[in-house]
Amino acid sequence: MNKLLAALIAGLFATAAYAQTAAPASEAVVKAQASADKDNIKAASKEAKVDVNADESVAKAEDKAGKKMSKAHAKAEKTKTKAADKVAKADPEDKSEAAAKAEKTGATADAKAHKTMVKAETKVIKKKVDAASDKELAATKTAETQVKGDADVKAAAAK
């Protein structure tokens, strides 16, 4: 029992002695931790802004592409309708020639619309890739800031 009591008392004195010597280092650790936390919050805020801007950019590109695609499709349909009207109005002996011409006009209109749609979709894909890249770079910067902050805290604790 005496040995146990002696060990507890010795542990108490050792803890008190350690607390007195560790107090200045503890203050430095607290300052380093506060600075690291501040930097982490700032980096996370910047990352969130980049994410929002990237998402907005993609949304705008998708909206613009949708409008272009519907406009191109409507234009192609209008062209094909005009060609069909010409076929309907054509003389019976000229109907087959008018129908062939209308088919050719329709194919050209569809091809032009498809080309416009592909270009619009390509722009959206490029925006998505750029947005993903921006988001990844921002996340990397945030992670770097967190690691640097942790290293500063460890360095302060080691002093």
Describe the structure.
With 159 residues, the chain is an all-alpha fold. The protein has one domain. It is 96% helix and 0% strand. The chain is built from two helices and no strands. The two termini are 39 Å apart.
CA radius of gyration is: 36 Å
From the N-terminal CA to the C-terminal CA, the straight-line distance is 39 Å
Structural class: mainly alpha
Distinct helical segment count: 2
Give the fraction of residues assigned to helices. Answer: over 70%
Mean pLDDT figure = 86
Number of domains: 1
Question: What is the H/E order?
Answer: HH
Low-confidence stretches: none
Morphology call:
rod-shaped
The total beta strand count reads 0
Strand content bin: under 5%
Biggest sheet features: none
List the helices and strands and how they pair.
Blueprint (H helix, E strand, L loop, with lengths): L1 H88 L5 H64 L1
Helix pairs in contact: 1-2
Main features:
single chain; 96% helix; mainly alpha; 159 residues
Please summarize what this structure is:
The chain contains 2 helices and no strands.
